Amino acid sequence: MDVQLTLGELLDRAVRLFPDREIVTKQPDGDRHRYTYGEAGARINQLAHALDELGVESGERVATVALNHYRHFELYFAPPCSGRSIHMCNMRLPDEHFQYIINDAADRVVFVDPAFIEKIEANADAFETVEQYVVLADDVPKTSLSPVVAYEDLIEGQPTEYDWPAIDESDECGTCYTSGTTGKPKGVSYSHRGVYLHSMMSGHTDTNGISQRDTVLPVVPMFHANGWGVPYAATFVGAKQVLPGVHTDPGPVAELIDDEGVTMSAAVPTIWLEMAEYLDDNPDVDISNIDRLTVGGAAPPESLIRRYDEEYDAPIIQGWGMTETSPLGTMSTLRKELEDRDPEERYAYRAKAGIPVPGFRTRIIDDDDEEVPADDETMGELTVRAPWVADTYHDRPSANRESFTEDGWLRTGDIATHDEQGYIDIVDRTKDVIKSGGEWISSVELENELMAHDAVTEATVIAVAHEKWQERPLACVVTGEHEVTADELRDHLGERFPDWWLPDEFEFLDEIPRTSTGKFDKMALRERLDDATVDTKP
Amino acid sequence: MDVQLTLGELLDRAVRLFPDREIVTKQPDGDRHRYTYGEAGARINQLAHALDELGVESGERVATVALNHYRHFELYFAPPCSGRSIHMCNMRLPDEHFQYIINDAADRVVFVDPAFIEKIEANADAFETVEQYVVLADDVPKTSLSPVVAYEDLIEGQPTEYDWPAIDESDECGTCYTSGTTGKPKGVSYSHRGVYLHSMMSGHTDTNGISQRDTVLPVVPMFHANGWGVPYAATFVGAKQVLPGVHTDPGPVAELIDDEGVTMSAAVPTIWLEMAEYLDDNPDVDISNIDRLTVGGAAPPESLIRRYDEEYDAPIIQGWGMTETSPLGTMSTLRKELEDRDPEERYAYRAKAGIPVPGFRTRIIDDDDEEVPADDETMGELTVRAPWVADTYHDRPSANRESFTEDGWLRTGDIATHDEQGYIDIVDRTKDVIKSGGEWISSVELENELMAHDAVTEATVIAVAHEKWQERPLACVVTGEHEVTADELRDHLGERFPDWWLPDEFEFLDEIPRTSTGKFDKMALRERLDDATVDTKP
């Protein structure tokens, strides 16, 4: 049967089969908003009618500048199901980039949380296509934006039924921009087909396994790559959803987990690191509902995985992905063969990026585009292919030439190894790997080992130019209240790595600069330390 | 990305990520053949080369007349991945129908198990398109078939690599014929896309949840609707597969479950009923590896589900589907809301056909094509729609007109109710429902209640013509060694059903005739009892 794979199929299933399941939002004032898929479905229909009235045409985009809450959830469906597209914006982008993405996407309407109105006001003059602002609230606060309307006023009185148009599965349902560390953000289109398949895959037993039995809490922002697909996958199966809004600190998240019976949550490692410390200080808080935690955005330290197993019986499963991949590509579920291995070995596998999920192909290639051996050692660039991977960036021919192979695989820019069990280990970014004397040194591995030292709280390793060896590693460390010398750290690294891997210089900093997505900003560091002199030892 | 959803994606994943996982076959002589996905992949490539040499063109079909074993598994992939199609034949069809399906499918090659050579010999003269016979064995036994070759000779020496062609996902990968109780079998096409999506769905946590951790044993024949999709879904995730060949009696199946660590198995209810009796007599046999059992083809009695829970901690999950639906459409997984209900209620839900799986839509309609209320009572015809549901029968315009609604839904021919939790209950076949005085009587519900009587081992209820009421129910029962009278059975039914539902006549038979797929053959019974006189009581 010619049944198109569209987001309408996901929503329709939730509304028909799970009309009474809840979507709970912690609002800015701390109160919880509760409603059901049935009620959400009616409001999504109202929103679609409102988009009709605003004159947003089929194929056009609306922007959201919003955290995780029920109105953003409605925007995940109304535009795409009615033939438009949702552009999820990262409000932490620098103004110049923020203006660029709104203009590049040609957004017609901007839906904005009250908390981010100032950001919009500061940039509105530069928006070229925006005709309407909608504040995601009951009322419009004092603002210079115009024309502006409150979301509730926008949809009030609209019919709660909508006759959805036929949608082609290849149509865009959403768009996100990658906040690269260099150059302008690049726009990625998601198709209905891609998100449908990603959602089906996210319920697969060998991946996130999101099920009708789950209560999910995406801490990951909904403006990051479809909230890692959690809101869509949860809707497909009718899972209860808990949306934390602005309350993403460990205390409020733990409270939501406890109160709402959350079984699955997804976030960057930092959140779970902070959560563990919070739980140590608050032994009365109970997160035992948790069945599993999905971690992405950066590799979780092995020690964190171990801690959640031992203290909370909450397995951390690492997922790897990127904006271009919808995002899920690999997951570090433990293969059956490895279940009987000793704990050290099991944790080493689980700390890797994982094995490709069903439907996702990977190929790690060297400079000659040949696949590198699965020896857990040889590095190459990870290239990927799947129905939910973007095949182009919006209007960026040179980025497209660089980022895709001739036979249509995405070059991820990640340097990886793979082993005979099929596990992929991300050892660096192509831009961060240190090329010393024709050999590659993984900055990530050095960083992890530095952070495993008791005295080090943060560490990042960058390449600095070197006359003889082309590049050499330089380590930037934050030690907090502990004291440690460069020699001690070099000795620590020397226990695991060959001499020529060891950084020649150590910079002791008060803090490491971060990008808008919270990652260490190596570009800023490189600029700051550009003229760092390196005494050659090798 | 334009990644076509094809069977090559499934196979490639197993061969790349799970090359050492086993596929175990119990051979006719009782020995077990063991090999891996890696080895299977190489032989599949050899078979594809052999098909090239035989001159089977792209888009053409080859027939299999075979049980569940590794060579049949290879045929599940080599024809479709190389652009052809596999026609899985039910060798239990009457000769006339068997000849019809081979000719209708225009099969070029027939792959046949040694056990079924006689069936082929008896029909070969009537085959219009077959040019080659291949015996699925090391050697060709004495046979009148010509030209004929042994499977092992066919593939021996062929290259173990094959350059797979690009396949469009809408291309046919396989075909099956429905063995209807009336008329000629109807041919159903499966597309690569449909089987890919069905396989992804079959790994979903809310369905069969087939995972890399599983060892699966499909007792359901591979010639029935893709073996209910088990071999394909298992390959997608790299699960170990155990194929029982001719050894589908309880003893050998239990032994395989025990020895091979089978975690998931799929079969009709009869198998598990017989298995329970076998286990009672053989307390040393251990099936505790089993994590869940999928049951389809007919509704399992509630008592069977209860028994497997209590005695073997092996939940029976009912699935509903048909040849036209690939086949999985609904599954009776217990909704979270119902987990705390009392056992009686839980078992009542689990004995229903279940809720639609993700991606599958259902609509139960009355004679005016209006959806019937979800009141667990009002009957209507179940109509369905999904990317893995056939939208046509081969060259059967009148069947197509009857079987599909104007807006493209399949009329299943099943009479069903649905309830407010979304569970569908199949209460009858459109052809079997008894229309008495303008009201409908469910033959299935009467049968189930009769079979719940201690004295009754088998029961079926058919409609007989009646002057005043149009149709009235007539019950055919097999009582085995127990004695019971018609009045006693009528009283038994009277405890649950209204007077006008109670059969007017009871026929006590030695056995109930069965169709080629093992179901009660109501058509044969109707013919035999055509002139049964019915004393009117109502």
TrEMBL record, chains A, B:
Check the record and name the Pfam families matching this protein: AMP-binding, AMP-binding_C
InterPro entries, A to Z: AMP-bd_C, AMP-bd_C_sf, AMP-dep_synth/lig_dom, ANL_N_sf, ATP-dep_AMP-bd_enzyme
* Domain AMP-binding enzyme C-terminal stretches: 445-519
UniProt keyword terms in alphabetical order:
Ligase
Which positions fall inside the AMP-dependent synthetase/ligase domain?
12-394
What CDD domains is this protein classified in?
A: ttLC_FACS_AlkK_like (cd12119)
So where does this one cross the membrane?
Answer: none
Gene3D superfamilies annotated for this entry?
A: 3.30.300.30, N-terminal domain of ligase-like
As for family, the record states:
Belongs to the ATP-dependent AMP-binding enzyme family.
Q: What is this protein called?
A: Long-chain fatty acid--CoA ligase
Q: Which PANTHER family match?
A: LONG-CHAIN-FATTY-ACID--COA LIGASE, MEDIUM-CHAIN-FATTY-ACID--COA LIGASE
**Is Ligase a UniProt keyword of this protein?**
yes
Task: Enumerate the GO terms in the molecular function aspect.
Answer: ligase activity, forming carbon-sulfur bonds
